Amino acid sequence: MLAVLSGFRAQVDVKGKLAELYMAQYLEHLKKNQVIEDYAWSDKDGLPDFVIVYKGRRYIAECKNLRSGEEGKYKKPPSYKVEVQKTRNSKDGSNTRSYSVDHFDLLAVCMFNQTGKWAFFYKASKHLEKTPDMNFLKIFQRVPFNPTTPWEKDIAVVLDDIARDRN
Questions:
Q1: 3-state DSSP: the chain helix, strand, coil percent, rounded to 5?
Q2: Distance between CA atoms of 143 and 112, rounded to whole angstroms?
Q3: Opening angle at CA 35, ends 83 and 15, nearest 5
Q4: 136: which strand partners?
Q5: What is the mean pLDDT of each run of 10 residues along the chain (167 residues)?
Q6: Can the peptide bond before residue 147 be classed as cis, meaning omega within 30 degrees of 0?
Q7: In sequence order, what are the residues at sequence separation of 6 or more whose Cβ sits closer than 8 angstroms to the Cβ of residue 80?
Q8: How far is CA 104 from the centre of its chain?
């Protein structure tokens, strides 16, 4: 336990796994209540955190934690900050951490690092900020203190938004 408490990287890893666990519990609740048909949680490099089956279609979800402390906030306009990139670069050292704009469908952001609560805000990836060339997502994304569209507390609202584009 001391190793986790003493190691920044260990704390980040533990909080990341806990966020995924709480997300999985939420998805299990939605499955039991027939809001979603199914989900799969993966912990393998190269695979998405979650695949969600909703109204007969598959959706890819990535789960990220807000940044901690004051460095986890923007001053103007006031908002939280989430880092959206893959954990590792490729073995040859090239930068493969940035997500392409179509790598996943929705972002689940765990609010714990700023609020102390294992709650989530959700946003369709199509609404995330992009790099100037429009091929990749910006590494740092703003998250409002209180969800305002297109950020939502209800994942089904975001899944419906994504589904409208697929029809």
A1: 30, 25, 40
A2: 13
A3: 30
A4: 100
A5: 53 83 97 98 90 98 95 93 80 72 96 96 97 92 95 97 89
A6: no
A7: 66, 67, 72, 73, 74, 111, 114, 142, 143, 144, 145
A8: 10
| Phi and psi torsions of 166, nearest 5° | -85, -15
Q: For residue 77, give both structure tokens.
A: 């306009």
Q: 46-72 burial, b for 16+ CB within 10 Å, e for fewer?
A: eebbbbbebeeeebbbbbbbbbbeeeb
Q: How many CA atoms lie within 13 A of 48 on its CB side?
A: 19
Residue 37: CA atoms inside 13 Å, Cβ hemisphere, count?
8
Which token pair is 76?
A: 């103007």
Class of 2-166 in CATH = alpha beta
Q: Where are the domains of the chain?
A: 2-166
Over residues 32-60, the pLDDT tens digits come to 999 999 999 998 877 899 999 999 999 99
The whole-number pLDDT of residue 49 equals 96
CB 76 within 8 A of CB 32: no
CA gyration radius, the chain:
16
* Burial (0-12, 13-18, 19+ Cβ within 10 Å), 123: buried
